[in-house]
What we know:
heterodimer, A: 486 residues, alpha/beta, Amidase signature (AS) enzymes, 11-stranded mixed beta sheet, 38% helix, globular, B: mainly alpha, 36% helix, 4% strand, flat
Amino acid sequence: MLHKRTITELRTGLQKGEFSAEELTLYYLERIEGNARELNAYITVTADIAMEQARRSDRDRGKGVAGPLSGIPIAYKDIFCTEGVRTSAGSLMLDKFIAPYSATVVEKLSGAGAVMLGKTNMDEFAMGSSNENSHYGHVLNPWDKERVPGGSSGGSAAAVAAGLCAAATGTDTGGSIRQPASFCGVTGIKPTYGRISRWGIIAYASSLDQAGPITRTAEDAALMLQVMAGHDAKDSTSIATEVPDYTRTLGDSIKGQRIGLCREYFEEGLDGATEKIIMEAVAVLESLGAIISEVTLPNTRHAIPAYYIIAPAECSANLSRYDGVRYGYRCENPTDLQDLYKRSRSEALGEEVKQRILVGTFVLSAGYYDAYYRKAQQVRRLIKNDFVEAFKEVDILLSPTAPAPAFRIGEKSGDQIAMYLQDIYTIASNLAGLPAISIPAGMNGQLPTGLQLIGNYLDEARLLNVAHQFQLQTNWHRLSPPEGGP
Amino acid sequence: MKVTKEVVERIAELAQLQIPNRELDAVMEKMGRILDLVEEMQSVQTTGVEPMANPLDATQTLRPDTITEKNQRRLYQEIAPDTRDGYYLVPRVIE
Lengths: 486, 95
């Protein structure tokens, strides 16, 4: 049952010589072989690279120079460039794109000794909340294969939940780490905007995009984040502030921590069973000495409108690079340059992506810019100001991660607006640039339900501390989805 | 907001996307619904509010104007659809 172990437990096993990195990697590769196609969690499995990295890890350990994640088998969302390996972003546009270099995050994790098992499935260019927008087909939720795993990092969340990797990377522009983590019963943190370098991560909306780990526990998230975070000269938006030791404060008491419940997040639209689970989790935190109060974020209802202007606007600019000239898909027999651009883009980009490009182009176009884009940026500041005010009263904000558990495949795919409303609790922290974590807080029937904690700027250590203390008191993060069967 | 056929065609041209005629109605309707969703925002009082482009209000950092990258043209052109003599090839633009 190695696949149920945490990174911390696997590290102990490797250190004690209970198993080698090669054995562990082989074990995971065999699980992927037997299982991944069923869930469709991976787009590419990199078995040869994995075995080579595992053997190197074993040699390093023999020499006493093993890194902090040496021999730990992980997966990368297929939006992180990996040198020499296809990096598709879930799109036909990049189906044959072999990245010529690796993302900074990949360099850092490899440098720490992590073993790359493969690249996980995702909504095309990270646009989606259900993983139904992938060129490679949708991912199934390991808890109920008729349901979505969430999105856009659905492959990563499903792979961690199903024991097809020890941890995975994700990216989060409007909730794409936290919502799938919630739907799949795993832990996922989106750090402060700029805490992790975006260099080599395929861009969606640059002022919102942030990478983070998806893991079994908050403790594992701390170990991963420790390696992933930090300033990078190649990303001018990355923060220069020193990275604290996230594991050092995990064991701290949370007595006296002021936790605020966002009033607006418990109003209309929240599933009753989800609310009950969240309130039970609040009681656990209260029993640990946290001081619970209610806070208000008055501009909450404007978060989704602001996001669905800003994100498409930035997406339309970022995705203009896919023109069939320098890399990626090129149409057959173009008649002229315009035809080359238009047909390459139109044939290789999916419906949701094209829709967002159109909306983004519209809100940036002459005559509409002030009414939409500028307005959205002003509203964005008001949303941020709400948080600034709230953090004068409390240390952490608490809410559900999503309004309800995983929905059925196809249930919302015909209704874009219903899909967009999935992100109601996660989007505001992207707009404000704040760190937020989702941890398993209970079961809604057979479906996991996540709790979200939002922290102040660069306060990841506090989020991980509270999440870890919660996980010491509860067992939700230890549950595994049923294996085999329908 | 009602999105007309002319608007969609103009935007598609700007975005370098082709929308087949049979899909125009659906695209118009979807765009209209998204714009309705965001319309609600217009009621917010934002006079005097500084637009926010970066969550940390960070400004662009500068570095010394020195060459830090080596030329990797060959590596990067290996993944291009069509190149010759170090150039990217596209259909003839000037007759």
